[in-house]
C-alpha cells in the first residue's frame, strides 16, 4: 500500500466482512463489530465526530479482549493498528472532511479537486478549455487561486497524482493547462473587460504583513469578501520568495508582476518599502485602526548545517537562498569552474541549474539520503541529469575547506541507510573509512529556509513555539492575541506555493469568522452534494482509446544551459484543447 490507500477505508473494508462473518453467539463480537462498522462508515462519509476515535478504541479493545473466538479476537486489529500508526488520517477525515488519499467518494467531487490544496474545480476549468471558453476557465481557477500563471509553472501538482485518467494511460497535464489559460488571459487583456475592485461592503479594516503568496492570497480573498485590505511589504517588490529566489528560467519576473498587478486592481492596497519592525510593530497596526492583522512574513532565513568551515565570510561560500537572491537581483556572482551544492530539494536543484548558467563547468550535488528519499520530484531530477548536474547520493559533507579565506573544496563521507525511524525514513549512518575530498571553487549550502522572527520586539506578547515560530491554532491560524493571525511559511516552514496560497485562503475565512463572532471550524473543501443530479452537457462515449499525454515543449538543451530564458514554452491553443479533452469528467454523476 502507498499514499493512494486510505487507511480509514482499509479498516472499514476489513471490518465489513468481519461483521458479516460474526456468528452472533457472543455479545462483544455481535454488537461491537456492528458499532465499529457504523462509526467507520460515518467517518468515511464525512460525518465523523471528535469523540469517535476514543469510542472506536474502547469498543475495539473490548471486542478483542472479550470475544470467544479468533474472529472477534482478531477482527479489531485493523482498527487498533491503523489508528495507532495513521491517527492523523482519521483526524483529517473528521476535522477537515478530507480524505488525503482521495478514496472516500462521499467526501469529494473529484479526486483532483479534492487533492488540490486550494480546492480548484479542476474538471470544470478543463472543460471550459476543451470548449474554447478561456475566460470562464481562468475565472473558475481564480475562485480559489489568484496566481494561475505562477502555479501553472511551479506548482508541484499533487492533483495529477490522483487523476483517474492516469489509471488508464497517463494523467491529464493539469498544471500545463492552468498555465495555458492564464497566459491566454494576460495576452488578451486589451480585448477583455478590465478587472475592477471588489465592492467594499465591510467596515472592518484588515492588515497583512508580507506580500508573498500567502499574504497576497489572504488579501485577495478578504477583498473578495468586501473588506478593505492593506498589505505591508518590506521589499520594493512583491511576491516574496517567488520574486527573490526562484530563477528566471522557472518563473520569469514579469509573470509574477502581472499576477500582483491583477490583485492590486481588484482593490488590494500594497505598501512597498514599509517593513514591520521593532519600531513599527503589529501592535501599532492595531492601534492604527486595523481590526485584524495577518502575519505572513515567509521563511527568509537560510538554514545552516553546522559543519566545520561553514563561515559566511569565505569567498566562494553561499547559502542557497542568498545565492539565488543575488543572481535574481542582478548582482555579480562568480562561481568558478567547479560548484559543490549541499542539499537534495528543489532549492539545491535551482542552485545547480543557476550555477551552470553562470558558467560553471562541473556542478555536483551532495545528498546524504538515497534517490528514493530525495525531496525533489522525478521531473526536477530528470531535468538536472539532462543538463549535466552530478548527483551524489548517500554522501554527507563533513567540512568546508578553504585557503586564505577562499573556498578550496569539501571533505565528505559515504553513508549507508540504517533502520527506518518512526517517520518511515531510514536514518543514514556514516561508513567508516569512506572519507574523500572533492575540489570546489564555490560551495553552496541549500538545505532550506527558516522563519525570521527578528522583526518582532523582544517583549512581544505573541506566543512562540520551541522551534522559534509563532504558535497558532492549526485550523483558524489565530495566535494567542485576539485579532492577530499568522500562517504560511512563517509558521510552518518552507512549503510549496500552492500550499502557501491555501494557507492564505484559510486565513481569510478564519478572519471573516472572527470578525463575525463565528466560532465554527474553517472548512476548506467542497463536499459532494448528495441527491442532486448533474446533467451531463457533453456526449458520453461508450468506449475510449489510449491517448498519450501531451508533452510540454521545452527550450533546447544547449540553449537552456547558457540562458536564463524560460525552459518550458507552454501549449498552443490546439494542443491545450486536445489535452483538456482527455479529462474523464469524474466529477459528473449521471
Could you explain how this protein is built, in words?
- By secondary structure, this protein is α/β, with parallel strands linked by helices.
- It folds into four domains: 7-107, NADH-ubiquinone oxidoreductase 51kDa subunit, iron-sulphur binding domain (de novo design (two linked rop proteins), Up-down Bundle); 108-192 and 528-590, Fumarate Reductase Iron-sulfur Protein, Chain B, domain 2, CATH 1.10.1060; 206-300 and 451-515, FAD/NAD(P)-binding domain (3-Layer(bba) Sandwich); 302-450, FAD/NAD(P)-binding domain (3-Layer(bba) Sandwich).
- 38% of the residues lie in helices and 13% in strands.
- It has 22 helices and 16 strands.
- The strands form four sheets. It has a five-stranded parallel sheet. Strands 6-14-7-8-9 form a five-stranded parallel sheet.
- α2 (27-44) runs antiparallel to α3 (52-66).
- The longest helix has 20 residues, at 77-96.
- The protein is globular, with a radius of gyration of 26 Å.
CATH class of the largest domain: Alpha Beta
Overall 3D shape:
globular
Instruction: Look at the structure and name the CATH superfamily of the largest domain.
Output: FAD/NAD(P)-binding domain
Helix proportion = 25-40%
Count of helical regions: 22
Straight-line N-to-C gap: 31 Å
- Biggest beta sheet attributes: 5 strands, parallel
Alpha-beta content class: alpha/beta
Arithmetic mean of pLDDT: 91
Classify the oligomer.
single chain
Range of strand content: 5-15%
CATH topology of the largest domain: FAD/NAD(P)-binding domain
Low-pLDDT segments: 530-542
> Would you count the extended β strands for me?
16
Q: Which architecture name of the largest domain does CATH use?
A: 3-Layer(bba) Sandwich
- Give the total of domains: 4
The radius of gyration over CA amounts to: 26 Å
The main sheet orders its strands as 3-2-1-4-16
Amino acid at each position: 500500500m502507498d499514499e493512494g490507500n486510505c487507511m480509514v477505508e482499509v479498516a472499514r473494508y476489513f471490518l465489513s466482512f468481519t461483521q458479516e462473518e460474526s456468528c452472533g453467539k457472543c455479545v462483544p463480537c455481535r454488537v461491537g463489530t456492528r458499532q465499529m462498522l457504523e462509526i467507520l462508515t460515518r467517518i468515511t462519509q464525512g460525518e465523523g465526530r471528535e469523540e469517535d476515535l476514543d469510542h472506536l478504541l474502547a469498543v475495539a479493545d473490548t471486542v478483542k479482549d472479550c470475544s470467544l473466538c479468533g474472529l472477534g479476537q482478531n477482527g479489531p486489529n485493523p482498527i487498533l493498528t491503523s489508528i495507532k500508526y495513521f491517527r492523523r488520517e482519521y483526524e483529517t477525515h473528521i476535522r477537515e472532511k478530507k480524505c488525503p488519499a482521495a478514496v472516500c467518494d462521499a467526501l469529494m467531487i473529484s479526486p483532483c479537486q479534492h487533492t488540490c490544496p486550494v480546492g480548484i474545480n479542476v474538471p470544470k476549468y478543463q472543460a471550459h478549455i476543451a470548449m474554447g471558453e478561456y475566460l470562464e476557465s481562468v475565472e473558475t481557477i481564480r475562485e480559489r487561486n489568484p496566481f494561475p500563471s505562477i502555479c501553472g509553472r511551479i506548482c508541484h501538482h499533487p492533483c495529477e497524482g490522483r487523476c483517474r485518467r492516469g489509471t488508464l494511460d497517463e494523467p491529464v497535464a493539469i498544471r500545463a493547462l492552468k498555465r495555458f489559460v492564464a497566459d491566454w488571459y494576460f495576452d488578451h487583456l486589451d480585448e477583455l473587460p478590465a478587472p475592477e475592485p471588489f465592492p467594499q461592503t465591510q467596515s472592518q479594516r484588515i492588515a497583512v504583513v508580507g506580500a508573498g503568496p500567502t499574504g497576497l492570497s489572504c488579501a485577495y480573498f478578504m477583498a473578495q469578501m468586501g473588506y478593505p485590505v492593506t498589505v505591508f511589504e518590506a521589499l520594493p517588490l512583491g511576491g516574496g520568495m517567488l520574486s527573490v529566489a526562484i530563477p528566471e528560467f522557472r518563473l520569469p519576473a514579469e509573470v509574477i508582476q502581472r499576477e500582483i498587478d491583477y490583485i492590486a486592481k481588484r482593490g488590494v492596497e500594497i505598501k512597498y518599502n514599509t517593513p514591520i519592525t521593532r519600531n513599527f510593530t503589529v501592535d501599532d497596526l492595531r492601534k492604527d485602526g486595523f481590526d485584524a492583522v495577518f502575519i505572513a512574513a515567509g521563511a527568509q532565513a537560510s538554514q545552516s548545517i553546522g559543519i566545520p568551515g561553514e563561515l559566511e565570510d569565505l569567498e566562494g561560500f553561499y547559502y542557497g537562498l542568498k545565492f539565488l537572491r543575488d543572481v535574481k537581483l542582478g548582482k555579480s556572482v562568480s562561481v568558478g569552474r567547479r560548484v559543490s551544492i549541499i542539499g537534495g530539494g528543489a532549492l539545491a536543484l535551482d542552485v545547480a541549474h543557476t550555477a551552470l548558467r553562470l558558467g560553471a563547468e562541473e556542478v555536483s550535488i551532495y545528498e546524504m539520503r538515497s534517490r528514493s528519499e530525495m525531496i525533489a520530484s522525478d521531473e526536477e531530477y530528470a531535468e538536472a541529469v539532462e543538463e549535466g548536474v552530478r548527483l551524489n547520493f548517500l554522501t554527507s559533507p563533513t567540512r568546508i575547506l578553504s585557503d586564505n579565506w577562499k573556498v578550496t573544496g569539501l571533505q565528505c563521507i559515504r553513508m549507508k541507510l540504517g533502520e527506518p525511524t518512526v517517520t518511515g525514513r531510514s536514518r543514514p549512518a556514516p561508513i567508516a573509512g569512506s572519507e574523500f575530498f572533492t575540489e570546489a571553487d564555490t560551495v553552496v549550502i541549500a538545505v532550506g529556509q527558516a522563519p525570521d522572527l527578528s522583526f518582532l520586539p523582544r517583549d512581544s506578547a505573541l506566543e512562540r513555539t520551541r522551534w522559534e515560530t509563532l504558535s497558532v491554532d492549526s485550523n483558524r491560524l489565530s495566535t494567542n492575541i485576539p485579532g492577530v493571525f499568522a500562517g504560511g511559511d512563517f509558521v510552518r516552514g518552507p512549503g510549496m506555493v500552492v500550499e502557501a496560497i491555501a494557507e492564505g485562503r484559510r486565513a481569510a475565512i478564519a478572519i471573516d469568522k472572527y470578525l463575525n463572532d463565528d466560532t465554527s471550524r474553517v472548512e476548506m473543501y467542497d463536499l459532494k452534494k448528495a441527491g442532486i443530479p448533474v446533467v451531463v452537457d457533453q456526449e458520453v462515449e461508450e468506449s475510449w482509446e489510449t491517448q498519450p499525454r501531451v508533452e510540454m515543449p521545452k527550450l533546447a538543451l544547449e540553449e537552456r544551459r547558457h540562458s536564463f530564458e524560460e525552459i518550458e514554452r507552454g501549449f498552443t491553443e490546439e494542443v491545450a484543447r486536445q489535452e483538456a479533452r482527455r479529462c474523464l469528467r469524474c466529477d459528473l454523476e449521471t
